Amino acid sequence: MGGWEMRMVWNRQTVEWFRHASDYTGYNRALGEILRAHIPTGTTLCDVGCGAGLIDMELAAHCRHITCVDIDPCAVEAVAGEAARRGIANLAPLCRDGAELEGEWDTVLALFHGGNCCMQRYFPHARQRLMVAAYQQLRGSFGPAHRKREKHFGAARVQESLEEMGVAYTVEHHALEYGQPFGGWEEAQRFVAACCQPMEGWELDDYLRTHLQPTGRTDFPYYLPKTKEFSLFIIQREENLGVCP
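and the corresponding C-alpha cells:
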C-alpha cells in the first residue's frame, strides 16, 4: 500500500486510551456479542495481534482458555495486568510474532491484524475456524482528511485474497461506535497528533474545534465520535479441507 502508514505504538498512554474508549462506548462488549455467536462455549482460542487484549477480557468467561499473542512487550504486559486486575485466570499472554506461532486452538482470531497473509500464517493453527476482521475503509477516522493515516489492510482486499485461493467463507458487515473520550483539551491534542501524520498546531486546533463534542461529564468532558465499520470473515476448517494448509 502506498502513502503514509502508522503502526500502533503501545505504551501506557495508548493502552489507557483504548481502555477508556472501550468503557465509554461499550465497543468491546458489543464486539464480544458478535464474536460469541460464532464461537462455541468452552472453546480454546488464540487472539493473534491482541494489543491490549480488551476483547479477550470479554470472551474469557465464554472460553475455556485464551492465548493472547502480540509482538509488543508493552501490549502483552498490559494484557497480563488487566487480567490480574479483573481476576481472570484463563488468559495466557504470549509475546511473539504471529508469523512464528506454534500450536493449535479451536478458534483463531485475527482482528484488524495480519494483512492478506492470515490464511497462510494463522489457518494452520485453527482446528475449527479462523475469524478475520478487516476495516471497510482504508483511511483513519480521526484528524483532518489529508492527515489521516492509512489502515494496514482492508476488507475488500481480504475478500479478494480469499476468493483467489478458493477459500469458503461467510462474511458479516458491522458498524460499532468506538470514539474516544478525553479528560481535557490537551489530551485530545495528544491523541489526534498520535493518530495522524504530522501537522501544524493551528491545523490540529481547527480540527478539534470543529469535531470535539462536549459531554457534560466531569471525568470525560470531551468526546470524538467514531463509527468503526468492519467486515468479519468466518472461515471454517471443515469447509476448507484440502484448500488451505
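(Above: one complete record from the training split.) The chain has a mean pLDDT of 91.
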